[in-house]
Amino acid sequence: MGGPRVLIWVQHLLGVGHLHRAASICRALLRQGATPLLVSGGLPDPTLHGIDGIGFVQLAPARARDATFKILLDINGEVVTEEWKSTRSAMLRDVVRNFAPDMVITELFPFGRRQMRFEMMPLLQMLRGMPNRPLIFCSVRDILVDRGKPQHDIDSITWLQEYFDAALVHGDPSVIAFENTFPMAEKIRHMLIYTGYIAEQHVIPYTEAGVDEVLVSAGGGAVGMKLFQAAIDARPMTVARDATWRILVSPLENPHNITTLREMAPPGVIIEPVRPDFPGMLHHCLLSISKAGYNTMMETLGGGSRAVVVPFVGGNETEQALRAALLSRRGLMHMLPEPDMTPQTLAAVVDHALASPKPDPTAIRLDGAEETARRIRAEIEKHRR
Fold this sequence. Notes:
Blueprint (H helix, E strand, L loop, with lengths): L4 E6 L6 H15 L3 E6 L14 E4 L4 E2 L7 E2 L8 H18 L3 E5 L9 H12 L6 E7 L8 H14 L2 E5 L21 E3 L19 E4 L7 H10 L10 E5 L5 H10 L4 E5 L4 H4 L5 E4 L3 H10 L3 E3 L9 H11 L4 E2 L7 H12 L13 H17 L1
Parallel strand pairs: 1-2, 1-6, 2-3, 6-7, 7-8, 8-9, 10-11, 10-13, 11-12, 13-14, 14-15
Antiparallel strand pairs: 4-5
Helix pairs in contact: 1-11, 2-3, 5-10
Protein name: Glycosyl transferase
InterPro entries: Glyco_trans_28_C
Keywords: Transferase
């Protein structure tokens, strides 16, 4: 393969949205003639699709112990050691040296993933000292989680200004500007590049599954049991009581919980693992009921399906609730706050959503993958001059 060489580092800790968004950018880069390398530090994800032709490196996998994200566990569920960190950090630097990228993109860091400083800071220092220093960008969602720690914001700006050339913001400022959730953004405004939201509608796997079904999902993390149980109980109270309801469960979910769901499920309710063709099912389902993760919401909007979203609020998470509220005000989906969710309230919102018009998929920018790839190529060409 030829073309500019772009390495994207991504670390997913709870769900898999970060990994899938990075893969979307890699696919767009490949379509535009670049040579992408995706370097993942999270647990392997069986639902990851469409990476043929894309270089892929799996670092020693790490995940968060819980929604506080404070403790890192290895693939065996043990707390990572200093030796583990040192070995993984060295491997990452070797991967970068061997690939010789024109650009390195760190997904979320320095605005998040502070737990990964043990490998990020040595990498950035190495990149800064290279004779043919590659461009260094970070890739970040439209909304940051408020951790209530101003020093973290100061650190983010300091590291961005010291090591990075720009920050790709995967959002639409007409929906929400980056400074709305990062108050110090004025200091780095000249470094921000808005790309639009990432939703690759033209590479969604074809599927015949899900036609006129109610799809219930919670992304790739093990955070969906309350939603799944409420959906099963709500079904007979809705106008969609005779439709098939398909509940898609993360492979990370506790096996005991999956058994519980199967025991609860009446005829007409399917319990199965998350599927790679889920985005395709959104094009012809009756309704999507889900958590409000970035990727699921953008895929749902791109598919044009009616949707009910129940934002995740574990730990200090505020990102899902804010984005869901913004999009629901535009009539693009219907939000039910998780603390308010009961089978009765969920059934009421489901009926309201089914009685409402389908959302307009052109209401916000969803071309973020292609725009990101275009900007990356343009910046590399400018850097080479």
